[in-house]
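Students often ask why inverse folding is considered easier than folding. One informal answer: many sequences map to the same fold, so there is more than one right answer. In these notes we will look at a single instance of the problem. The structure comes first.
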């Protein structure tokens, strides 16, 4: 009897392999190249959809972010707030605890600040009030973050869903107290708190409203960099993130690390809430966090959990937001168009990480495999 020859297979044209560590200079050039490519694509899209000179669009974006001293300070404020929330989620992400609840933790921290301003504003000295607000905001954010951490550490629940659902609870808490403390009555909003006395407001420094916010976040950035890179706790976070079994084998208490890290993450979110209420808007609404809890995830991942590099990634996103608002105003375009440009730029930047970490190898000849 004749037997059929085995089917022949051909190797694929190419395959993807993980790179060894790319030199820093080369990685930087790849990322810069991705930005240039993104700008070229954005220019083509702008011409195709609007007929507007893309050079004018880019000039308007730069003007929207840096066109005046006031715009620069607004950009720094946006950068500081986004960076603060990004710093908060970074220890948890480095530990591979997917804290998607920063939005709710910021809101609860801001709500604690607002409660202190409303209930104690004209009853205690301002210095005592601000200290109380700091303690209350940190405690509120930490408690909100440690609740899912306890369930994760003891019952191994899904922290992604748990922290995400906590966001909605936080939003509804703020909505409830907005009704309780509404001013004026019937408005459904709290309004500016202590507008007459400015009790609980961060003071202007050197004539700048946001100066203290920027300084505080800069100090937090330095602290977080040192904490993650040089402290024993930072080392334990890295080991738990790599492998919980390895961490247990070398004597690290994984449950303790999870709880401690989430307390820190929530506490920094609470500080962000404090800065948004006391140092920025002087009120609390369901929109106070402004989606920063989700944008911060992108900032942290793009920076590879490095707090110093996160300054640059947060600056990029803050610049794109400020520039998007300006081109929408200047050219009468709706925000959807500016979001298209932002999406294209982010797509290329995130996509560049593939080429930094992996390489495509083409097969010189298709070999037969039996």
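Output (designed amino acids):
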């Amino acid at each position: 009897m004749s037997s059929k020859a085995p089917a022949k297979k051909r190797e694929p044209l190419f395959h993807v392999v993980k790179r060894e560590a790319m030199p820093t200079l080369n990685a930087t050039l790849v990322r810069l190249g991705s930005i240039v490519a993104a700008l070229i694509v954005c220019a083509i899209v702008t011409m195709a959809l609007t007929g507007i000179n893309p050079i004018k669009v880019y000039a308007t974006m730069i003007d929207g972010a840096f066109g005046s001293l006031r715009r620069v300070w607004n950009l720094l404020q946006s950068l500081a707030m986004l960076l603060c929330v990004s710093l908060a989620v970074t220890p948890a992400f480095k530990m591979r605890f997917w804290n998607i609840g920063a939005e709710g933790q910021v809101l609860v921290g801001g709500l604690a600040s607002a409660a202190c301003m409303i209930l104690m504003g004209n009853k205690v000295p301002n210095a005592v009030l601000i200290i109380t607000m700091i303690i209350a905001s940190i405690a509120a954010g930490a408690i909100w973050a440690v609740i899912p951490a306890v369930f994760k550490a003891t019952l191994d629940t899904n922290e992604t869903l748990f922290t995400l659902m906590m966001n909605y609870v936080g939003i509804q808490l703020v909505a409830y107290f907005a009704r309780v403390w509404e001013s004026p009555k019937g408005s459904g909003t709290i309004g500016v708190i202590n507008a007459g006395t400015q009790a609980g407001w961060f003071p202007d420094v050197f004539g700048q409203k946001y100066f203290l916010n920027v300084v505080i976040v800069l100090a937090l950035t330095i602290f977080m960099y040192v904490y993650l890179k040089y402290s024993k706790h930072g080392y334990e976070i890295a080991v738990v993130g790599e492998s919980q079994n390895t961490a247990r084998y070398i004597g690290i208490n994984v449950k303790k690390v999870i709880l401690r890290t989430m307390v820190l993450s929530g506490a920094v979110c609470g500080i962000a809430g404090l800065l948004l209420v006391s140092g920025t808007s002087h009120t609390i609404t369901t929109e106070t966090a402004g989606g920063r809890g989700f944008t911060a995830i992108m900032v942290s991942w793009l920076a590879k959990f490095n707090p110093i590099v996160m300054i640059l990634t947060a600056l990029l996103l803050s610049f794109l937001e400020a520039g998007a608002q300006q081109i929408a105003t200047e050219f009468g375009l709706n925000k959807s168009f500016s979001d298209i440009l932002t999406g294209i730029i982010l797509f290329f930047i995130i996509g560049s990480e593939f080429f930094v970490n992996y390489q495509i190898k083409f097969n010189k000849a298709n070999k037969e495999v039996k």
